[in-house]
Write a structure and sequence with these properties.
Layout lengths: L7 H52 L13 H5 L6 H7 L20 E2 L6 E2 L3 E3 L4 H5 L34 E3 L26 H9 L3
Length: 210
């Protein structure tokens, strides 16, 4: 009676073929997962923008970049994302991680700082204008509603004389090493310049980079 079996050579060939197939498939799988994460990032930003639009439609002004109670545009928009209960839980909790405000593609830490300085991070930022560098105050859509940052009065879409389509509202930001200093706010640059200086000083610094 003849026995059916693989020879050692046939087994090695089969293992090699399986390994080759896996090597070809894994990059495609990883690419598909990253594409799904990027889609989720865009979806989060879209929901954030929709919440801003709903807030403006309700109050006839854009939400504050920060108000006198130190509540950010993210915080005040939570009810418009059907996250009202999460907003209540966030009161006094600076390290509460809100998934909708984080991009799955960013592998950075969800918390920056330690102890009393610890803060939950976000991958979405709002335009508060050129701030004090240009004219001593905020002039963007999401102004600071407090005296420290010299925030102007709240205003709505009708005040955007250059048109809404010509004004940056929200954007993504990617964290580099989980610190306050390295947040990849500078495109294709390892340098950054953060401070209360005038816009001319910022321009001079950038022009002096190699």
């Amino acid at each position: 009676m003849n026995r059916r079996a693989f020879t050692l050579l046939e087994l090695i060939v089969c293992v090699a073929i399986i390994g080759l197939v896996l090597a070809l498939c894994l990059p495609a799988i990883q690419y598909g997962r990253e594409a799904a994460r990027r889609t989720q990032c865009s979806s989060n930003l879209r929901q954030f923008a929709l919440a801003v639009s709903l807030y403006e439609s309700n109050w006839r002004v854009f939400p504050p970049g920060s108000n006198v109670e130190a509540r950010s545009v993210h915080f005040v928009c939570l009810p418009y994302m059907e996250q009202g209960e999460l907003g209540a839980a966030a009161l006094g909790n600076t390290t509460l991680n809100v998934p909708i405000f984080r991009c799955p593609s960013d592998g950075g830490t969800a918390i920056i700082g330690t102890g009393d300085d610890a803060r939950a991070t976000t991958n979405y930022v709002a335009n508060s204008g050129t701030w004090w560098q240009k004219n001593g105050g905020c002039d963007g859509p999401f102004q600071f509603w407090d005296d420290f940052f010299k925030g102007g009065p709240p205003f709505g879409a009708g005040a955007m004389t250059r048109g809404l389509s010509n004004t940056s509202g929200l954007s993504e930001i990617v964290h580099a090493d989980g610190s306050w200093e390295r947040m990849r706010v500078n495109w294709e640059s390892t340098e950054e310049f953060i401070g209360y200086d005038r816009i001319d000083d910022f321009a001079a610094y950038c022009q002096g980079l190699p």
